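dude i think i finally got it to work??
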Amino acid sequence: MSRPRVAVLGAGANGAGIGADLTRAGHDVTFIEQWPDHVEAMRRDGLRVELPDEVQVTRVNAIHLCEVATLRKPFDIVLVLVKAYDTRWACELIRPLLHADSAVVGVQNGMSIDDVIDIVGEDRALGAVIEISANMFIPGVVERQSPPSKSWFAVGGTTPTSQSRAAAVAELLSTAGTVEVTDDIRSSKWMKLVVNAAELVPSAILGLPLGDAVQVPGMRAFMAEAGREAIRACIADGHRLRPIFGMLDARVDDPEAYADQLINAVLVDFTLPTTRTTVLQDWMKGRRSEVAEINGLVVSVLSPEKAPLNAWVVELARRIEAGELRAEAANAALLLAT
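look at this
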């Protein structure tokens, strides 16, 4: 596929950063975003991406969500970067702009590949594992803490037809980071879910950047056990342990040890002092989080009794989103009470 027509469906911190890389590499990219002020800022001033060593301002083609209905030309590759709970309606929105050979890639947390399959069909659906650290609080501005040299993806399909499209997607994403093609995308996505279950919501409950949260006494042990519960859920769900993040020494023969190894990899290789997880960013913006698609999935596969730490994380997140608690460091004692 030469110079595919690309849509970035969801141009938040990760989507916008990836889309900027693709645009700067000469690809035909349309940003589709639901935050009106962000779209207008990108149109007016370009997209500003603040990297650790430089600032890039890129002129991009950004449209409002409501303007999708005015488009007529189909897309060859759609990168879906909305929240996991928004996957189904987002895929329905873009479905009229697909052709028979389009690839729709869920570049998201959770097991959203199955929602993509339900809407666009198994042969057009691919999943992706993504590891990028980025923040966005100002319209038109991304604080990307993981430059392309420090960003990582894995892509794959679930049928021979969708898997045959993985190479083209990997080539596209290679401008934004290191990319691997996996022959078992569901297992690979479960590996990322293990990390997310351990770190995203637990650290957000404390209202702290990830690096600060892990320094709170007891938190590292809590994260490790939450990750081990997620590993057990992965296996119980019929999947296997796979290396991700390019790990050459992945301890896939030792589930308990591998959970710890995954958590350490993110803390060492992808975390800066100012890194806030996506869940904390959502709560800072007054939005609900993906806790149901992450820790909630672990609990649903096992049970509250077999995944007590993840079940407690889900409950505390519910209280925060209901306004009964604030996300703050004082919650450490409550979180660790289990």
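Residues 185-205 form the longest helix (21 residues).
im so relieved honestly
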